[in-house]
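Annotated sample (chain length 264).
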Amino acid sequence: MASGSKQEAGKQSLLFTPGESLLHKANPLTSLVIMLWMISAAAVLPTAGTAILVLAAITVSMATGVGKRSVKRLLLTMTPIGVALIVVHGLLIERPDETNIGFIAVSPDGLDYALKVFMRVAAMLMATLLFVTTTHPSEMLKALDQRGVPPGVGYLVASPLLLIEPFSDRAKAIRDAQRVRGLDLTGSWKARITALPVLLMPLITLALSDLDQRASILSGRAFRAYPRRTVINAPHDSTFQVWFRRILLAIAILQLGIPLLWRF
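Output written by the structure step:
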């Protein structure tokens, strides 16, 4: 059974990358609490603090062997967001400190605000990427069951991550099938937008059919017959990790609550 657990944990998913780092070996709930703490810290730290948080998360991702995948997705996501923030807050929104540079009115305060929002979103995204690339969804579901979380809640939390890879593979299969039938997916943007419904409709139809099938399977297995599920190959946990999670979760709540109380 132990070998089966290792094989399951080592499965390659869309985001998860197998490894032997401390984050890979940690209990999934510990990784989850670290992510929540990073997100709460990013919500209250100034721009310099969030920049340090992003650099620290990138350094950790490099050390754990998931840096290439995490940084790539970070850049792909944050580049268009950064451009949009600069245009909207630095150029389009009128502010008292606007400075005319040729035909463009630039607001330093707007650019500062855009940078602040950009770094916060980047820190939150990097925290999430660090979690999903080092924690397999199936192990997360086992950890929730191990702690007595109701099966429905645990499945609701872990199922989106478990379904990403099958849906991605299905989308690629639909794309390849449509290309064999002569659908042009390499032409102009107009041609690609026109072809989008042809790709989406089969995927949506199959997704709805798959949801009904999954519901029937779970019902047939009496998924929610008992309030708690028995876990055979539970993820490793320790007293140190339990207290670490409690302390870090308390810090996360405090660092969010203190600024709110300060405003009142």
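Annotation: Confidence is low (pLDDT under 50) at residues 1-10.
Annotation: The chain has two domains: 21-136+234-263, 151-220.
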